[in-house]
Model the fold of this input.
Amino acid sequence: MIDMRIIGLKEFTKNYINDKGKYMKKTFLRLGKQPITNNFLTKHQFEDEYFYNLDVQFDTDTKLVSITKMIDPEMMFNDEYVHRASQSITMCKHFEDISNQLQKRHKKVLEIGSNDGVFLKHWNTGDAIAVEPCGNFAKETQEMGYKTYAEFWTQELANKLLVKHGKQDVIYAANCICHIHDLDDTFRAVELLLEEDGVFVFEDPSLFNIVKNTSYDQIYDEHPHMFSVIALDNLLQRNGLQIVKVENLSVHGGSNRIFAMKLSQDVIHESVYQNKRQEEDLGLDKFEAFESFTLRVENSKTELIKLLTTLKQQGKKVISYGATYKSTTIFNYCGIDSDLIAYVTDTTLDKQGKYTPGMHISIVSPEQGFDDTVDYAFLGAWNFVKEISTKESEFLNRGGKFITHVPEVRIIGENI
Ligand code: TYD
Done:
């Protein structure tokens, strides 16, 4: 395969002032040439595949970590969107639990990025509104009886919803806010539609865990921002909201569930201070922490290539488990193609029979590919390691092994 990555870029730190002449943003990580992460392709689409340079920067003003090149949302969130939130048992239980928790105190809910309705299905159809720009999923929640707006979340939409439905008790979003480029517009839209004592609850992978675990694969086109509590509170506060509570979650490799309310509410839970202190201890409010993160990312790449190359030389069959968006970042950054990973297995019907973005490794169903011939399986879906190791106990019992890069590159067997 032709090597499409950019190699040898030595200039890691670029300082510049944005077009308002206001903020200092510094690039600290370059993850090379990357494709659209959710663009699982057929062979005839290889030639026209779109690539961009995935660079990551720190905003010294807000402390927000973001990618430098924002991809047009319509290239990612369209009628062919493949990520189905109800794909895993862990996530189904997760959304049932948060629905029960919120319903103890609130009635009317609006969900931003409602996907296949995995959260909303626990709410009465008359009390819940879905906002989902991916037409295929918007159709599903509409058919389930939920009033669904197949649109992106904007102030314009919030104004329309205010007239039609009034203010909301709860606005909820899971793994969605970090997808949105313009956070000021997003938070202003929430502020507009929220009751005075309403709560905005949203959860996304946490920057604290990304840095601590060197899980750089959380960085890709769909995740233009990686959130610390510190940065989020800065951004929310300049838009009339503030963080009142933080819950640390284990899902998606470590996420934070943020509870935000209007600035007029004055009860701040201890968890907000605790999380901010913890982040400061890791240095997430300073650029230097990200420079050392970059060194760990480069080391992770070296170690992973070394391990996969050694296993290949030993004649072992290595596959990848879960055609995740995250593994797209890893494969393209490390230059891992079908020479090192025989194929990828995934339970998602829409991914099966296709190829991974960029490195073009074939994807098959677990029934077809997760058989006795497999010696090692790289955990693309490492965030589900518990669920997967329980499900695949037979593989482990017969001596099969998983490979992960989190928190460092290693082989894991029965001792998970
Ligand atoms: P996900 O965790 O959402 O990661 P990302 O956001 O990086 O894509 O995706 C998990 C993928 O792994 C999804 O395509 C389904 C697949 N999967 C399996 O193939 N088998 C499993 O047992 C589990 C839990 C997931």
About this structure: Residues 83, 87-88, 322-326, 346-348, 381, 383-384, 387-388, 391 surround thymidine-5'-diphosphate (CB under 6 Å). Residues 314-412 form a domain with the Rossmann fold fold (CATH 3.40.50.720).
